[in-house]
Write a structure and sequence with these properties.
This protein is mainly α and 82 residues long. The protein is built from four helices and no strands. Helix 3 crosses helix 4. The longest helix is centred in the C-terminal third of the chain and has 17 residues.
């Protein structure tokens, strides 16, 4: 990762104003407005609501909340979050 949390490929997509076609990338999302990159989405929009995250991932905000709850529970159990 480089400055601002963006990778070189993310910066290149933003500079050239083209969406990423690298579907195998772990940061790829099917959301052309953010150049198909979750790193660009975070960089451009900062903190997002559960509804905004759901839109980008193609799932409901209720499902995003379920995933968040499970992740926080696991982090707490592993002492990664207090």
């Amino acid at each position: 990762m480089k400055k601002g949390g963006l990778r070189g490929c993310s910066r290149k997509c933003m500079e050239k104003k083209v969406t990423c076609a690298e579907r195998e990338c772990k940061f790829y999302i099917e959301h052309p407005e953010d150049y198909n990159c979750c790193l660009v989405a975070i960089y451009e929009h900062g903190p997002m609501t559960l509804r905004q995250i759901g839109e980008r991932l193609g799932i409901s905000f209720a499902r995003v909340k379920q995933i968040e709850t499970i992740a926080l529970r696991k982090m707490k159990a592993n002492s990664l979050f207090s």
